[in-house]
Amino acid sequence: MDVQVVDYTATDAPQKFVESLRETGFAVLTNHPLSQDLVQSIYDNWLNFFNSPAKQDFLFDPEKQDGYFPPEVSEVAKGHEKKDIKEYYHIYPWGRIPADLESEITGYYEKASTLAGELLAWVEKNAPSEVAEGFSEPLPHMIEDTPNTLLRVLHYPPFTGEEEPGAIRAAAHEDINLLTILPAASEPGLQVKQKDDTWVDVPSKFGYLIINTGDMLQEASGGYFPSTSHRVINPAGGKSEKSRMSLPLFLHPRSEVVLSERHTQRSYLMERLKELGVV
Ligand SMILES: O=C(O)CCC(=O)C(=O)O
Ligand SMILES: [Fe+2]
C-alpha cells in the first residue's frame, strides 16, 4: 500500500488514517486544523533566526536538550557515520525560546498537541482489540501534561556544492517517540522505505500534514504499528539556493508511562539515546 492521503473531515478518516499507519508507518492529512499560514509564518520567522547571529545566544543545553543545535553538532543517525546537513532548535514549553518568536511557536505547539491527542484516539479506536488492550493506559492519556513532547524547528541550509561527500540532509532513521506530526516542509526531499526496501517520496504538497509512527508506539503495540525508516535526500544535482524548513512535533509520553513489559518512556528513551551516543 502507498502512504494514504486522507481528508481529515471525511467520516471514514480515522479508519483510513490508521490503516495507512499500519501498512506504511505513515499517513497524510488534508483539510486538517493546523493553519498553513501559521506554518509559513513560522518557517519565515525561524529562517531569519537561523540566518542571524542571535542563534549563538541560545546554544543547546546538553543536560536539558533545549535550544539551538549548530551544524557541527547535528545528529549522526544510528548506523551512519556522516553528520546530517542541518541545524535545528529544540522547543519545550519549559525551555528557552527567543522572546520575539515565543508566542507564535508555543501557540503552534499547543494546537498541534491537541490535534495529536485526537489522532492518538483514532489509533486506539481503530487498533484490533488485542492491541488496544495491551496499552497500559489510553494513548491520548499518555501525553496529557507531558513535559517531554519536543517541537524541532529544522533548517537545512542551501547547498553550495562543498558538502561532505556522502552526507545527506537527514540519513535514514526511525523516530523514537509515539507519533510524529510533521507539516509538509518548504521544499521536497522526504522519503519513506517501503516493505520491499525501496524508497518512495512521501506526499508532501505544502499544506499537507504528515504523521508517522515512532518506536514507542511500535513498542507499545507489540510491533503492530511499524516505525518505518525515513530520510531527507539532497536537492537534485547537489545544488540549491534554497533553504529547506521543517517542523516535526515528536509526541512523548510522560516519563513514568509504561510502554511494555520491558520499558517505560524514560527507560526506552535512555536506551535509545545511549545507542545514538547522545548521553
Ligand atoms: O525534515 C523532514 O522532513 C523530516 C525530519 C525528520 O525525519 C526528523 O527530524 O526526525
Ligand atoms: Fe524523523
Automatic annotation (TrEMBL):
<keyword id="KW-0560">Oxidoreductase</keyword>
<keyword id="KW-0479">Metal-binding</keyword>
<dbReference type="GO" id="GO:0046872">
    <property type="term" value="F:metal ion binding"/>
</dbReference>
<dbReference type="InterPro" id="IPR027443">
    <property type="entry name" value="IPNS-like_sf"/>
</dbReference>
<keyword id="KW-0408">Iron</keyword>
<dbReference type="InterPro" id="IPR005123">
    <property type="entry name" value="Oxoglu/Fe-dep_dioxygenase_dom"/>
</dbReference>
<dbReference type="Pfam" id="PF03171">
    <property type="entry name" value="2OG-FeII_Oxy"/>
</dbReference>
<feature type="domain" description="Fe2OG dioxygenase">
    <location>
        <begin position="146"/>
        <end position="253"/>
    </location>
</feature>
<keyword id="KW-0266">Ethylene biosynthesis</keyword>
<dbReference type="Pfam" id="PF14226">
    <property type="entry name" value="DIOX_N"/>
</dbReference>
<dbReference type="GO" id="GO:0009693">
    <property type="term" value="P:ethylene biosynthetic process"/>
</dbReference>
<dbReference type="InterPro" id="IPR026992">
    <property type="entry name" value="DIOX_N"/>
</dbReference>
<protein>
    <recommendedName>
        <fullName>2-oxoglutarate-dependent ethylene/succinate-forming enzyme</fullName>
        <ecNumber>1.13.12.19</ecNumber>
        <ecNumber>1.14.20.7</ecNumber>
    </recommendedName>
</protein>
<dbReference type="InterPro" id="IPR044861">
    <property type="entry name" value="IPNS-like_FE2OG_OXY"/>
</dbReference>
<dbReference type="GO" id="GO:0102276">
    <property type="term" value="F:2-oxoglutarate oxygenase/decarboxylase (ethylene-forming) activity"/>
</dbReference>
<dbReference type="InterPro" id="IPR050231">
    <property type="entry name" value="Iron_ascorbate_oxido_reductase"/>
</dbReference>
<comment type="similarity">
    <text>Belongs to the iron/ascorbate-dependent oxidoreductase family.</text>
</comment>
<comment type="pathway">
    <text>Alkene biosynthesis; ethylene biosynthesis via 2-oxoglutarate.</text>
</comment>
